[in-house]
Structure formats: C-alpha cells, structure tokens
Amino acid sequence: MPSLSDIEWATRWDGYLRVLEPSIHWFSLINSSIIVLFLTGMVSMIVLRALHKDISRYNAVDAQEDVQEDYGWKLVHGDVFRPPNKPMTLAVLTGSGVQLIAMTGVVLVFAVFGFLSPSNRGALGTMMILFFMIFSCISGYTSARLYKMNGGEMWKTNMILSATLLPGTLIGGLIGLNFFLIYSHSSGAVPFGTMMAIAGLWLIISLPLSIVGSYIGLRKPKLEQPVRTNQIPRQIPEQPTYLRSIPSILMGGILPFGAIFIELYFIMNSIWFHKIYYGIGFLFLVFGVLILTCSQVAILMCYFHMCGEDYHWSWRAFLTAGATGFYAYAYSFLYYFTKLDINSFTSTVLYFGYSSIISVLLAIMTGKKSLFLF
C-alpha cells in the first residue's frame, strides 16, 4: 500500500468522494422517473381530451348559450380566480419558496461542475448563505406581484414580511439551537460573533435587495385575469372524503416524498453519522424530478377539486405539494427511533430542531413548485 507521500494531492480525496452503493441511487431515480411519466400521461390526457375542447368553446362568441349544460369544473370558471384567504401569507410564502428554489438550483449546478468539493471545507455552506441573500430580490418581487394580483393593498406590510419572515425565522431558530450547543460545551457551537455577522450580512445585503425587488414588483402593472370573476361567490357542494382538505393534501404529498425518499436517507446519514455525501449528480436529477412531480400532483388535485365545484385551489395547490415537508418530518421520527442512539435531552432537542427547520424549508420550497401552474 503506498504511503501518503506517494499519492498525488489532486487524487487524495478520490477514496472519500466515490458514491457508495450507486445501484440504490439509480433504482431511486428510475422509480421517480416512472412516477413522473405516469403523472405526465395523466395530465396530458386531461389537458388534451377534457380541457382543450371546452376552453375553445368558452372563448367562442356564443359560449353563453351552453352554460346550462355545463357541469363539474366548468361551473366554477367565474370563481376560479377569486382571491384566496390570507393572500398576504400566501404571497410571502410563495416568494420565499422562489428564493429557496433559486438558491438550491444554483448551488447544485455549482456542485455538479465541481466548484464545491468537500476538500474545500465550508464552501457549500458559504455558497448557500450567499445565494440565499442574493436571491432575496426574487422573493420580494414574486411576493409583491402575487399579492398585487390578488388585490392586496397593504404593500408596506408585504415588503416587510417578504424581507423578514423566512430569514428572521431561520436566524431565530438557529440561534436558539446554538444555545443548546453552547450549554453542552460542544465544539460545533457557532461563536456569537459569527451569528451576529450573518445577521449583519442579512441586514446589509438581503434586506435591501428584498425591498428593491418588492418595489419593482409593485410598480409593475397588475396581472389581469383571463376570466371575469363573479361578484357573488358560488356555493360549494359537500365534498367526498378524499377531496376534503386534510385527506387530499396528505394524498398529494406522498408522491413527491416518494421521489426523494432514498436521497433523503443518504443525506440524513451524512448529517448525523458524519459521512461525506457526494452523490451530487443524483441529487441534481432528483431535484428536477421533484419539481416535475410537485407541479403535476398539484395540477391533478386542483383539477379533481374543480370537478367537485370547489374553486379554492390556491392554498390547496401550495399545501398539496408542501405536504412533502410533513412527510419528511414524520420520517425524521422513524429515523430517530430506528437508526440513531441518542440518550441526552440536548441531542434530542437539536435533532428534532434541525429536522423541523429542514422540513419547513422543504415544505415552502415544494409548495412554491406546485404554484408554477400560475
């Protein structure tokens, strides 16, 4: 066996950066691709066979003559663009989801091209923080545009919440968990000065960019709806059990979670067992599959709701795919009891604290992916 001095510096990390058990990753990717193809076929069938003919008829001049013969989703065409409940919250969460998607996509692209090697310690975390702050301008812009489209008038509150809700929650949660690390005298505790430096970077970079993005979004003309909304809301009939809020949201979140389940397992192993995760190529492909799965699941579920004459689709679309974060958090409990051997209270709080933060971020990100159908 060669000594350390006989190994070139450029190849010393090769033994650590190889992907363990690649067949499992390929199995997961093929399984996820089959799910996407199945959903794509269903969406295509609905669009081509069920919607194309009816949309053409509604765009015709004499469309009003056949209104009496309408049924299902066609009955709610005058209510489908009615502003949702709590439009401020939906707009802010959607903007934050766009920010997370942009950050994740760009970081994965840099990692795939080899710019974020584990040999450069801290590079991944630094790039994530940097791009998260830079893309806050996209968050403010998206939030302002969506809020204005839904008829919101409290634009100052929208600006402030877009700039502070997600970053403030993240910083507050991480500082709170960091106190547990300091209390347990852990070497992984982040120094107080570093936390304040991150907060300062948010104040200097992220906050102004978010406000600028919100200002640009509010100055843009309001997005006009393609269909006139009725003044009197239509009464929603009693829905079957599987189309009610909680059952439909939980059913919709299963498929996106199934698409990322295997990669989530390896990522959690790398976090809690201090292993190096270097399946970046697989992770990038799974990220693309997740985007497609979330969008198509939301489209299908919203179509089924509208066939039941339920036109409250905005929050359903967000929460249906966002339920992926709920399943990820539920899986963290299974992982805790089956894979980990944690006995101390502090370690348990840290584990579930970090798991809850990751799950919330995943829910916001996947929820925004479902709203690509805007």
From TrEMBL:
The keyword Signal applies. It is a multi-pass membrane protein. It is found in: Membrane. The keyword Iron does not apply. It comes from the Eukaryota. InterPro entries: EMP70 (IPR004240). Pfam families: EMP70. The chain crosses the membrane at residues 24-48, 90-116, 122-147, 159-183, 195-218, 249-268, 280-305, 317-337, 349-367. Keywords: Membrane, Signal, Transmembrane, Transmembrane helix. Belongs to the nonaspanin (TM9SF) (TC 9.A.2) family. PANTHER family: TRANSMEMBRANE 9 SUPERFAMILY MEMBER 2 (PTHR10766:SF111), TRANSMEMBRANE 9 SUPERFAMILY PROTEIN (PTHR10766). This is Transmembrane 9 superfamily member. It comes from Helicostylum pulchrum.
